Amino acid sequence: MGNRKGGDTLPLHRKGGTGAPRGKPAEFRPFKRWFPWLVPLFVIANVALFVLTMYVNNCPQSESKVANVVGVTSSSRCVLQSELGRFSFQPIRENPLLGPSSSTLLKMGALAVSNVVSGGQSWRLLTCIWLHGGVVHIFANMLSLLLIGIRLEQEFGFVRIGMLYVLSGIGGSLLSALFMQGSISVGASGALFGLLGSMLSELLTNWTIYENKLSALSILVIIIVINLAVGILPHVDNSAHIGGFVSGFLLGFIILIRPQFAYINRKNAPPVYQAPKKRKFKTYQIILLLIALILLILGFAVGLVVLFSGANLSEKCSWCHYLSCIPTSRWSCSKSSSQTSCLSSQLGNQLNLTCEATNKTRTYYLQNENASAAVYQLCADLCS
After folding, report:
1. In this structure, what are the phi and psi dihedrals at residue 375, rounded to the nearest 5 degrees?
2. pLDDT at 338 over 60
3. Where are the stretches annotated Disordered (predicted)?
4. What is the pLDDT of residues 4-26, one digit of tens each?
5. Are 34 and 274 in contact (CB under 8 A)?
C-alpha cells in the first residue's frame, strides 16, 4: 500500500530485501525478518479446539436425550449426521453457522457474564477467544488471521505479535462483557481487530520511515472502516471488534515502535564515516508510547472494576446498541436469536418454559422429573 525507507512488506511495501537483481548489489535491510510459526500455530490450536468442541457437542446424542425427556420419538435434525456422526452440526435454525449448541460452547469456556461475575470464572475472558460458533465463523477468522498475522509476525516477531493477539482478544472480551450481557460470546474477532488496529498505530508511530504515507494511511483506514461496518449487521458482536481494535491500536504504539531511520543508518555506517549522532526514537514516538500505555492500563483497570461491580453499560447508554446493530427494513436487531434465557416452572412432570427474549411459552411433559440437563437445550430450541 505504500513504501517505507527500509525493511520488508507488512502489507505496506518497503524498500529493502535480502536479494537483488543479477548484477546489482543487495539493498541494505535495517530490520530483521522473522520466520512466522506462532500465527500458524494459533490457527492449528483454534481448529483443534473447534474439532474437540464438536466431539463434546455430539449432536445426535443430545437430540436423543431431549426427545426422551419430552417423550417423543427421536428424529434427529442434526446437519450431516450420516456423514459426520457425533461431529455433525446442530440444526440450522439453532445455529446457522454450522456448529455446536450454546450449551456446549458454554461448557468449553464461552464468555458468559454471569459466570464471570458471579461464578468467579474470569478465565472465560481468555478462553472465549479460542472458541468458534461454527464452520463459517472459524473459516472467516482463520483466513483473516493468516492474511494479516503472518506478515506482522514476519516483521515484528512472535513475542510481540503473540502479546498483541492475546491482549487485544482480552480487550475485546472485556468490552463485549460490558455491553452484550444477554448472550454468550466466542471468537477470535477481537484479537483480529487488534491486529488491524496495531497496523494503523504502527504506521502513525513509525511515520517518518514510510514513503507514500497518505496513500498507505488512506487504504488502511478504508479497510478498517469496512471491517468495522460489518459489525452493524445483526447477530455480530461489534463490541468485541471495537474493544479489540482499540486495545490493538494502543498496543501498537507501545510494542511496534521502530527506531528512526537516521539512527539505523548511523549505527550501520562504516567506522570511517562519522555521521551526526541521532536519538533512537523521536520525541513524538515517546509521547505516543506513554499516552497509549496510560490509556491502556486505565482502560483495562476501569473496565474490570465496572464488570465485577455487576454494571450493565448497555442499560446506561441509550445509543450504544447501534454500534452492534442498526435496524433496517431488511433485518431486525432483536435479541431473540442470541438470547437463551428462559423462565421455568415445573409441577410434577409438567415443565413450562418462557423465552425471556421472545415471550414464547411452551409446555413439555417430561418422562423424567429430574431431567434438568435437557432444559437448556429445550430453552435454546424455544428461543431460536
Report:
1. -65, -40
2. no
3. 1-24
4. 444 443 444 454 444 444 554 44
5. no
- Spatial separation of the C-alpha atoms in residues 355 and 339, rounded to whole Å: 8
The answer to whether 250 and 193 have CB atoms below 8 angstroms apart is no
State the Cα–Cα distance between residues 338 and 237, nearest whole angstrom. 11
Place of cell 452440526: 89
The per-residue b/e assignment along 297-335, b for 16 or more CB within 10 angstroms, e otherwise, is: eebbeebeeebeeeebbbeeeeeebebbbeeeeeeeeeb
Q: What are phi and psi of 28, to 5 degrees?
A: -70, 130
Q: What single letter denotes the amino acid at residue 270?
A: P
Q: What is the pTM of this model?
A: 0.78
Name the amino acid, one letter, at 196. L
Higher pLDDT: 228 or 295? It is 295
Sign of CA dihedral 366, 376, 115, 317: negative
| Cell numbers linked to 242 | 471495537
Q: Is the pLDDT of residue 1 over 50?
A: no
The three cell numbers of residue 354 are 418462557
* Grid cell for residue 222: 478504508
Point out the residues that are catalytic.
189, 241
